[in-house]
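User: C-alpha cells in, sequence out, please.
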C-alpha cells in the first residue's frame, strides 16, 4: 500500500489486507493541517507504526519506511508534539553492553523496507509531554532528504501491529462484537 499526499486524510486510515494475512497500517495527517505541497512525500511508505506505552520521561516509536522513489533517500529528522526531542537511535552491542546511538540520518535505499522495531532501530521520544497510555495516539512529523515531509499518527499499544492483530483476532473470538479498533 502506498500513501501519497492525496491519501493523507485527517481521519485515521486502517487498511486490512484480506487473504489470511491481516495487517493494519495507520497513517494520518494532522487535523486542521492542509496537505503539504511536496508531491514527493508519497514516495516513502510508512507501515507497522506504533508507540510503546510509557510512564517515564522517554518513549520509543517504531515503524517501517519503504522508499518507493527511484532515488536513495534518508530520514533526516522528526518532531512530535508528544516530546521535547525526537531522535533516531540504533541499538548495538558494545562488548556485552547494549548501547543506543543517535543517527543524524537514516538511509533509505530504493525499494528496501527499513524496519524500526524493538531491539534495533527506533525513534526515541525524549522529554515526553505526557505519559503514553495504550489507546492514545502520537503524532510524528517526519522529514526526508528528498521526499519532503510526512505526518503520521501512531497508536500507543504494548504489542507490534502484527502481534496485536493476532491478539485482536483472539479477543474477537472470545467476545463476539468486540471492536478493538479506534
Ligand atoms: Cu533510544
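Assistant: Sequence out:
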Amino acid at each position: 500500500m502506498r500513501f501519497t499526499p492525496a491519501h493523507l486524510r485527517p481521519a485515521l486510515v486502517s487498511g486490512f489486507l484480506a487473504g489470511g494475512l491481516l495487517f493494519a497500517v495507520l497513517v494520518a495527517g494532522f487535523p486542521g493541517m492542509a496537505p503539504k505541497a511536496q508531491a514527493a512525500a508519497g514516495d516513502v511508505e510508512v507501515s507497522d507504526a506504533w508507540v510503546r506505552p510509557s510512564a517515564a520521561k522517554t518513549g520509543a516509536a517504531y515503524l517501517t519506511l519503504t522508499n518507493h522513489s527511484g532515488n536513495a533517500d534518508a530520514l533526516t529528522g522528526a518532531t512530535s508534539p508528544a516530546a521535547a526531542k525526537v531522535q533516531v537511535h540504533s541499538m548495538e552491542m558494545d562488548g556485552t553492553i547494549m548501547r543506543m546511538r543517535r543517527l543524524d540520518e537514516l538511509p533509505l535505499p530504493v525499494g528496501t523496507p527499513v524496519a524500526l522495531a524493538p531491539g534495533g532501530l527506533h525513534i526515541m521520544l525524549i522529554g515526553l509531554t505526557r505519559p503514553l497510555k495504550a489507546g492514545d495516539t502520537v503524532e510524528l512529523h517526519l522529514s526526508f532528504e528528498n521526499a519532503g515531509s510526512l505526518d503520521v499518527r501512531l497508536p500507543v499499544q504494548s504489542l507490534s501491529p502484527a502481534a496485536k492483530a493476532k491478539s485482536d483476532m483472539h479477543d474477537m473470538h472470545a467476545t463476539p462484537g468486540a471492536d478493538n479498533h479506534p
